[in-house]
Specification:
Length: about 450
C-alpha cells in the first residue's frame, strides 16, 4: 500500500512582510561588463570551480562571503558579509551594486540559496522568487508544497524537539526517517524502526542542530515514512521555468539506513526509459510546486511502488567536487552552464561525453585521520581519472549522522556505466583509511 500524504500544518500562520524591497531599477547605472556575484561559504569547495568557469567565460566574478580571514584568496579578497544577518547583507551588496552593477547572482550551496534570491530580488535581477528558495531549504515546507499540489509524498509530520516526544509520535508508521529541517549531505538523517528508536533519533537530531542560528531549525524536525526502493539523483537547469535535465545518476548501493551516507553516483542511468520519464515528470512538477523558475536544480528521488517519489529538490548544483564529472560535449563545465544561464544565455543541447561516475569516500569511524594508503594503486585502475583525498592528516573525523564530510572523491569515465561502476569499486577496495583514536582530556 502506498504511503498516505498528510499535509503539514505549520505553526506559524502569519505571512511576514518582505524585508527586502525591490531596488528602484531607474537608480541603477547600466552594467558595462559581465559582472556576476557568487554567494558562498568562505571555505566552499565550489569557489575554485566557479572562478575557473568565470575565467573561461570572460566573466568578472565577485565572491560574497564571511571570508575576511579565509584561506581561499577569492573569498578573502571579495565582498565580506554576515550570512546570519541577511537584511544587512542585502544592503551591503546593494551598495556595491550601486557602485558597479551585477548582471546576475548565483548561490554556491544550500545556506546561500535564499539570500541569493533576496539579493537578486532587491537588485531587480531575474532569479527564483525568495519564497521558492526558502521552500527548497526547508524540508517541511517542501513536503507541504508537494502535498498541496497533489504530488505523491510519504506520510510526514513535523516534530517539536522541545516538547514531549512520546505524544507527538503516536500514529507514525514504521519504518520511518527522522531528519533536520535544513541540513545537507544526509547529516542528521536517521532511520527508526519503532517508537523507541524514533525518540532516540529525535534527541540525537536535537543535539546536532543546536549550532544552527535559525530558531526553527533548532527546534523542529521532520519525520516521514521510509520509502524502500532504488534512489537516483538528477542534475538539471531551469531557464524561464523550463527544466532541462543534464544528468540522471544511479545510486547503485542500497540506501536503507540506519544512516544514509551516499557513495556511488553513476551516469547515464540504467533504469528503464519509462522510469526515467516518470522521474523527469515528477521533478518538473516539483519545481512548479515550489515556484522555481531559474538556475541549477539538484534533486533526489526514489522509485517505490512503481512511483517516482521526490526526496528533495535543491536550487543549487550537486555538492562537493562531484560536479567535476559533468563535462559536456561542447567542452564546458557545469559551472559554465550555470553562469551562462544566470546571464540569460541559453544552455540548450548540453550533453555528456560518455559514462561517468564518482565515489564519495565515506568517513569510516570517529577519530583522527592518520593517512589514506593505496591511493597510487587506486589511480592505476582502468577508467579511473582521479583519486583525491581532500581531508588532511591530523583532521578529526566525525561520521554520520553527526558529521557530513567525505574524505575525498574517486572519479571515473568509461564506455559504459557498468564499467565505470566496476572501476570505482575496484579503486575504493585498494584504499586503506588509517584512523587513530581521539583521546580527550577531562578537566579536573
Amino acid at each position: 500500500m502506498a504511503p498516505v500524504a498528510r499535509p503539514l500544518v505549520l505553526a506559524e500562520g502569519v505571512v511576514k512582510p518582505d524585508p527586502f524591497p525591490v531596488a528602484d531599477a531607474s537608480s541603477s547605472r547600466p552594467a558595462t561588463k559581465r559582472r556576476v556575484l557568487l554567494l558562498a561559504l568562505h571555505n566552499s569547495y565550489r569557489i575554485g570551480a566557479y572562478s575557473e568557469a568565470a575565467r573561461l567565460e570572460g566573466i568578472e566574478l565577485v565572491i560574497a562571503s564571511q571570508g575576511s580571514h579565509s584561506l581561499v584568496p577569492e573569498a578573502a579578497g571579495g565582498l565580506h558579509i554576515d550570512l546570519q544577518r541577511p537584511a544587512d547583507a542585502v544592503k551591503r551588496i546593494s551598495a556595491e551594486a550601486q557602485r558597479e552593477p551585477f548582471l546576475a547572482v548565483v548561490a554556491c550551496e544550500d545556506v546561500t540559496v535564499e539570500l541569493a534570491s533576496r539579493v537578486a530580488h532587491a537588485l531587480g535581477l531575474k532569479h527564483n522568487p525568495p519564497e521558492a528558495s526558502r521552500i527548497t531549504r526547508r524540508k517541511d515546507l517542501a513536503r507541504d508544497a508537494l502535498a498541496c499540489q497533489g504530488i505523491p509524498v510519504p506520510y510526514f509530520r513535523r516534530i517539536d524537539l522541545a516538547a514531549d516526544l512520546s505524544q507527538q509520535i503516536t500514529g507514525i508508521p514504521y519504518p520511518c526517517v527522522a531528519k533536520p529541517l535544513a541540513l545537507s549531505a544526509s547529516r542528521g538523517v536517521i532511520r527508526a524502526n519503532n517508537p523507541k528508536e524514533l525518540i532516540a533519533a529525535c534527541r540525537r537530531i536535537s543535539a546536532i542542530v543546536q549550532a544552527e542560528f535559525d530558531e526553527e531549525i533548532r527546534r523542529y524536525a521532520l519525520v516521514e515514512q521510509f520509502l524502500p526502493g532504488v534512489e537516483v539523483a538528477v542534475e538539471g537547469i531551469l531557464f524561464d521555468g523550463q527544466l532541462q535535465i543534464l544528468a540522471l545518476f544511479d545510486k547503485p548501493d542500497p540506501l536503507d539506513g540506519p544512516y544514509f551516507e551516499e557513495t556511488y553516483y553513476v551516469t547515464p542511468s540504467r533504469l528503464s526509459l519509462a522510469a526515467q520519464e516518470q522521474i523527469h515528470q515528477q521533478l518538473r512538477a516539483a519545481c512548479d510546486a515550489y515556484g522555481l523558475q531559474e538556475g541549477p536544480v539538484h534533486a533526489e528521488l526514489r522509485i517505490a511502488d512503481d512511483q517516482a517519489w521526490i526526496i528533495e529538490v535543491a536550487a543549487r548544483t550537486i555538492g562537493g567536487d562531484c560536479a567535476r564529472l559533468l563535462q559536456f560535449e561542447t567542452g564546458v563545465s557545469l559551472e559554465q552552464l550555470v553562469l551562462r544561464c544566470a546571464l540569460r544565455e541559453p544552455v540548450q543541447g548540453a550533453r555528456l561525453h560518455d559514462a561517468a561516475g564518482v565515489m564519495m569516500i565515506p568517513t569510516p569511524r570517529a577519530g583522527v585521520l592518520r593517512r589514506v594508503e593505496g591511493v597510487l594503486a587506486a589511480r592505476r585502475v582502468t577508467y579511473i581519472e582521479a583519486v583525491e583525498i581532500t581531508i588532511r592528516a591530523g583532521y578529526e573525523l566525525t561520521p554520520l549522522p553527526e558529521g557530513g564530510t567525505y574524505l575525498g572523491f574517486i572519479f571515473a569515465r568509461g564506455p559504459t556505466p557498468y564499467q565505470v561502476e566496476d572501476a570505482l569499486r575496484q579503486a575504493y577496495q585498494k584504499l586503506n583509511v588509517v584512523v587513530a583514536p581521539m583521546w580527550r582530556l577531562a578537566s579536573a
